[in-house]
Amino acid sequence: MKYALLLLALLSTASVAEGLVPLKKPELAGVLGLSEELARTDASAGQPQPYIVRVYAAPVAVSECDGTVASCPDVRLLITVSSGDLGERPSLFELPAQKGWEFVGWSAPSSLGGQPAASFVIRSALPEANISPAARKTWRPRTFRMLVTPELATYAPR
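Given the sequence above, the corresponding structure tokens read:
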């Protein structure tokens, strides 16, 4: 009996839940729902960078490879850059899609367009599963050096 009264008291003080409607933004939902953060700047790291940089990989589709590299879904590489100032909106840059991405590491900061630039190395990659050994053997990753500021970004093959 006392448990029933306690339950009744708890239920009577509970707030009413509000419903949410899904946003009609499928591209944003795909990026947010599927993205993986590959890297972010860290002031205590060995190569401190002049900006706050975050690197994300986001597949364009949820699917699997069927043995060939061409059958694998493409993966977008998205980079946000900001100086961390109040009210600032980060800049967003995107590399051409590859079959996957790996963050290699931060490099010594450099210069781009006359201002300091964060620097890092990124490499294209293949998914771990469902690629035939023959297809995997012939595939070659591409490595890029990135320079980014809140206004500009460049990438160059290495």
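The radius of gyration is 22 Å. Try to locate this feature in the token string yourself.
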